[in-house]
Amino acid sequence: MKTRGFTLIELLVALAIVGILAAVAIPSFTEQVAKSRRSEAMRGLGDLQLRQERWRSNHTSYGTYANLGSPTVDNYTLTVTNVTATGYVLTATRSGSQSSDRCGNFVMTVSNTVATKSLSGGSNTSNCNWP
Fold first, then answer.
1. Per the domain annotation, does 3 fall within a domain?
2. pLDDT tens across 101-122, in order?
3. How many separate domains does the chain show?
4. What are the two backbone dihedrals, phi and then psi, of residue 20, each rounded to the nearest 5 degrees?
5. Which domain holds residue 12?
6. What is the pLDDT of residue 89?
7. Residue 126 phi/psi, 5° resolution?
8. pTM of the predicted model as reported, rounded to 2 decimal places
9. Cβ neighbours for 119, distance < 8 A, ≥ 6 positions apart
10. Is-contact 107 94, C-beta < 8 A?
């Protein structure tokens, strides 16, 4: 008698293999998505920095967020604070699905034409690529 189909053991082995592959692939995929969102936040801060310098070339001080236009970044909120004639602070604060990102918030402080980059509020900032 010839049987067709899979035995329960074969089905369980296939299920175990799929489970192991998913356990490896899903965290890797999630980290890559978070990494691409971080890159978008860094791009947004760079865009704001260029807008600040363009504003400053025509005015006596740096501009507020309202003066600069509104670059938008999904999953981050961009803010401009501590605006003076010689500097400002740009912050990309995590929001939405990125709110629990391990790298935290991106902060760029510009004072007397020197930009300093830092991270705040992160649980593990290794390999966050924000020099």
1. no
2. 889 999 999 999 899 999 988 8
3. 1
4. -65, -45
5. 8-120
6. 95
7. -75, 145
8. 0.80
9. 103, 104, 105, 106, 107, 125, 128, 130
10. no
Instruction: Give tens-digit pLDDT for 54-73.
Output: 999 999 889 888 888 878 88
SS3 82: coil
32: CATH: 3.30.700
Q: Is residue 32 part of a domain?
A: yes
Distances (CA, A) of 49 to 1, 80, 88: 76, 10, 9
| Strand 87-94, strand 114-120: pairing | unpaired
CA separation for the pair 48, 2 (Å, rounded): 71
Contact partners, residue 26, CB within 8 Å, separation at least 6 = none
Q: Residue 94 pairs with which residues in a beta bridge?
A: 76
Closest CA to 109 of 67, 129, 79, 68: 79
Domain presence at residue 127: no
Please state the separation of Cα 68 from the chain's center in Å. 21
Note whether residue 125 is domain-resident. no
Q: The tokens of 57 are what?
A: 């070339």
Query: What whole-number distance in Å separates Cα of residue 56 and Cα of residue 52?
Result: 6
CA atoms within 13 A on the CB side of 30: 11
